[in-house]
Description:
This protein has eleven helices and twelve strands. By secondary structure, it is α/β, with parallel strands linked by helices. It starts with a strand and ends with a helix. The model has no long low-confidence stretch (mean pLDDT 96). The site of adenosine-5'-triphosphate has 16 residues, from loops. Residues 14, 18, 74, 76, 258-259, 280-283, 285-286, 292-293, 296, 334 line the site of adenosine-5'-triphosphate. Belongs to the isocitrate and isopropylmalate dehydrogenases family.
Amino acid sequence: MSQFNIAVIPGDGIGKEVIPEGLKVLQAAAEKHGIELSFTHFDWSCETYHKTGRMMPEDGLEQLKAFDSIFLGAVGFPGVPDHISLWGLLLPIRRAFNQYVNLRPVRLFEGLQSPLANKKPGDIDFYVVRENVEGEYSAIGGIQYEGTDDEVVLQQSVFTRKGTDRILKYAFELAQTRDKKHVSSATKSNGLFHSMPYWDSRVAAMAEHYPEVKVDQFHIDIFTANLVRMPEFYDVIVGSNLFGDILSDLGPACTGTIAIAPSANINPEKDLPSMFEPVHGSAPDIAGQNIANPIGTIWAAAMMMQHLGHPEMHDTIMTAIETAIREGHALTRDMGGSANTQQLGQAITDLI
Ligand code: ATP
Ligand code: MG
């Protein structure tokens, strides 16, 4: 019998409400398929920060290292600056565990209304492959002549050949497994002088190894416009940390609600744990009301089981999500229903 140890970090806000629903669904799917999952909870969050001055203990990464996967809700809450909640937990985990791929599937489900006119299920079905550990999200830079009229802030980006090539390779490999075999690269080489021309040159070099994959590239401005105008054009989208971030919020927004979107922080070499979370944040505006949609978290759980080598569990969970949305009797408010978080989590669990 396969056995996996999962580190669970519910975090802040609605993270604490959606994670229990994800665990319920995981447990049901694991029982169905004869897999043993053991969950270890960590209460690391902005509350921990208020109490201890740290988002996680000093040896936090060491504690997580031995787990098979990390299942995360969301971190961040008013009163704690974003750079503390992000750089105190999320980003160190992504970087220390070499989770250099951020994989975000985007799909329009039957039963949900896209805000784009005349879009049917099947019209929106693509992946965003986002570079997750370097690029624009760098702490290199700073302020000079602070407080004077000459004040100047520099923010550096970092694009290494290794870091660029490995994310591009992941995107091309993924495209090869898909019907359309199509990679679209997000760039801005007409504005960013060094980084994006380099990115484009690495895309061209990688494309030579994949003659059967169709490749194109668009500047990020027209890319966002095209995504809204003709989402059916896209298959595998690859972008730097910043561009991938933007496109992976825009994508799910085109499918009716960002709350169903999952995010997998993957270490493809599997020598250290990968981390699975919903795309959405802690949503302080709706926290504590039991109205958060747990589907982004549940879909992330399905991706976790796929990564751990159990596609049958992934498929069981996805079928339950699809059925729940199609039948539509336990939908949360963001999807036009009136069910609460637990009712939707329970409906999906019951379908399993
Ligand atoms: P972050 O900076 O962590 O991405 P954010 O400020 O961008 O956070 P989110 O927490 O992602 O914001 O939420 C954006 C809005 O979407 C929230 O105000 C909330 O109303 C809505 N929302 C987010 N997640 C959910 C959910 N699971 N269910 C219902 N609504 C949600
Ligand atoms: Mg956000």
